Amino acid sequence: MDKESRTARRAAQRQSRSQSPLLKIPFQQIRHQFTPLETVSAEQVEQLHLASLRILEEIGLDFLDDEALDLWQKAGAKVDRSTRHVWLDRHLVLELVAQAPSTFTWRARNPERSLAVGGDTLIFAPHGGTVFAANLDIGRRPGLLKDYHNLQKLAQMCNLLHTSGEQLMVAHDVEVSARHLHRLLSGFTLTDKAIQEAAHGRIIPNDALAMARLVFGDDLGSDPVLAGVINVNSPLRYDDRMLGGLLTYARAGQITIITPFILAGAMSPITIAAALVQQNAEALAGIALTQLVRPGAPVIYGGFTTNVDMKSGSPAFGTPEGAWALVVGAQLARHYNLPYRGSGSLNTSKTPDAQAAYETLWTLWPAILARTNFVMHAIGWLEGGLTASYEKFIIDAENLAMFAHFLRGFEINEDTLALDMIAEVGPGGHHFGTTHTQARFSTEFYESFLADRLSYQTWREAGAFDTAKRANLVWKELLNQYQPPPIDPGLAEALQDFVARRERELAGVELYS
Question: CATH number for the domain including 346?
Answer without folding.
Answer: 3.20.20.480
